[in-house]
């Protein structure tokens, strides 16, 4: 475990750098701005929020991963909220570009890779993950999340990046690998 808190999960299946995980529910603060389709200002806006830029002017600890999601050509960026906060206790954002939300618990597939996260590395790993899920007949039920665990100054070969996607129709007998 690193120095930053992350959502709680258990690994159900592991094959090389791909895992099927069972996540507990966790809360996020999400940056969404239709005028900033690539979420270029997302990190700084969210960082401002956790650095007392919220209604309580409370400093909130940094967590991992930073989640990026794309829907209908619009990217969003999210910070995981520390587990000490219930959904009702999370300080309200001052910025109208940030909202508090939650990610329901459940099964997610993950592929882990290192290096500087480029579009090429994302596409390559996304293809591997999708092929794995098709081969195992798992049903995808969400957009794909890009998950970043390290600061930009971390050495590229030590960086942890992941692609996550929610799965449905999972039963214990389906989790047996062949």
Please describe the structure with a list of short key phrases separated by commas or semicolons:
single chain, 178 residues, 10-stranded antiparallel sheet, 34% strand
A few lines on this structure:
The protein has two domains: 9-24 and 108-175; 26-103, Multidrug-efflux Transporter 1 Regulator Bmrr, Chain A (Alpha-Beta Barrel). Helices cover 15% and strands 34% of the residues. It is built from two helices and ten strands.
Description:
The chain is α+β, with helices and mostly antiparallel strands and 178 residues long. It folds into two domains: 84 residues; 78 residues, Multidrug-efflux Transporter 1 Regulator Bmrr, Chain A (Alpha-Beta Barrel). Helix content is 15%, strand content 34%. It has two helices and ten strands. Strands 1, 2, 3, 4, 5, 6, 7, 8, 9 and 10 form a ten-stranded antiparallel sheet that branches. The longest helix is centred in the last third of the chain and has 17 residues. The mean pLDDT is 93.
Largest sheet: 10 strands, antiparallel
What kind of oligomer do you see?
A: single chain
Percent helix = 10-25%
User: Would you identify the regions where 5 or more consecutive residues have pLDDT less than 50?
Assistant: none
The share of residues in extended strands comes to 25-35%
Please outline the helices and strands.
Blueprint: E1 9-15, E2 18-23, E3 26-31, H1 42-50, E4 66-71, E5 74-80, E6 98-103, E7 106-113, H2 119-135, E8 139-140, E9 145-148, E10 161-168
Antiparallel strand pairs: 1-2, 2-7, 3-5, 3-6, 4-5, 4-9, 7-10, 8-10, 9-10
